[in-house]
Design a protein that fits this description.
By secondary structure, the protein is an alpha/beta fold. It contains 9 helices and 13 strands. It has a 5-stranded parallel sheet with strand order 3-2-5-6-7, with helices on both faces. A 4-stranded antiparallel sheet has the order 8-9-10-11. A two-stranded parallel ribbon has the order 1-4. Strand 5, helix 3 and strand 6 form a beta-alpha-beta unit. The structure holds calcium ion. Calcium ion (CA) binds next to loops. The site of calcium ion (CA) has 5 residues, from loops.
Length: 233
């Protein structure tokens, strides 16, 4: 397992469940690869480490438990286990084998998406070290201190709303990476299913009015037409 990827690997042998899970995760802005059995899952895992694994425990050929054990020997990629087993002992066994969370069938796909987000949020937080948060990031006339949630433009403190700050900080933390509106909704609002993507456009306009010298010709946050936005460091 070498190359880390941004895809979520869904391992599920029931086609309907696999399709629905894949559909909901895709709509939530994730790249998804779905496989129907354990041996194909291991083939995928031999060449890439996914962002997260949604793993059914009862699988043909190679059992989900076996996959869980093998993955944990090599990687701490987040794993959410799907289980039809209602017995608490089985769920506990899954967690003891290294799963990050479990969900019992039948489940609502929206619930699964929420769990995925929560697990990634927990994982994602540890990537931003405390020291990074206290550091002041400077980009020309723009300075950001995440720990203090302070934004300074041309030596003047700028008053951003919580969402405007989160939006800016997400872009700044991933310089040059293009985010689609649905990805921004997903990561800043966390409820992409229920919020109009136009919300992002409105917040982006206000954010630019506050941090850009000329909001119609932005220097910090670029619009990538037809795709989304990115931060120019
Ligand atoms: Ca199954």
């Amino acid at each position: 397992m070498n190359n880390s990827s941004s895809r979520i690997l869904v391992v599920e042998d029931e086609p309907n469940v696999g399709e629905v899970v894949s559909l909901y995760l895709t709509r939530a802005g994730y790249d998804v690869i779905t496989v129907n059995d354990g041996s194909t899952a291991l083939e995928v895992l031999a060449s890439e480490i996914p962002l997260l694994i949604v793993l059914d425990l009862m699988l043909p050929h190679v059992d989900g438990r076996e996959i869980l054990t093998q993955v944990r020997n090599h990687s701490n990629v987040p794993i959410i286990v799907l289980t039809a087993l209602r017995e608490e002992s089985d769920r506990i066994a899954g967690l003891e084998m290294g799963a990050d969370d479990y969900i019992t069938k039948p489940f609502s796909p929206q619930e699964l998406v929420s769990r995925v987000k929560a697990v990634l949020r927990r994982g994602g937080q540890s990537q931003v070290e405390e020291t990074d948060l206290m550091q002041t990031l400077a980009f020309g006339n723009l300075q950001i201190n995440a720990g203090m949630r302070l934004v300074v433009v041309n030596q003047k403190e700028v008053d951003l709303t919580a969402k405007e700050f989160d939006l800016l900080f997400l872009l700044v933390r991933n310089p040059k990476k293009v985010f689609s509106r649905s990805q921004l909704l997903e990561q800043v609002w966390g409820l992409s299913e229920f919020i109009d993507p136009g919300t992002v456009t409105v917040h982006m306009r206000r954010l630019r009015e506050k941090i850009e010298k000329d909001p119609s010709n932005p220097q910090h946050i670029e619009t990538v037409w037809g795709v989304g936005y990115r931060f120019k460091p």
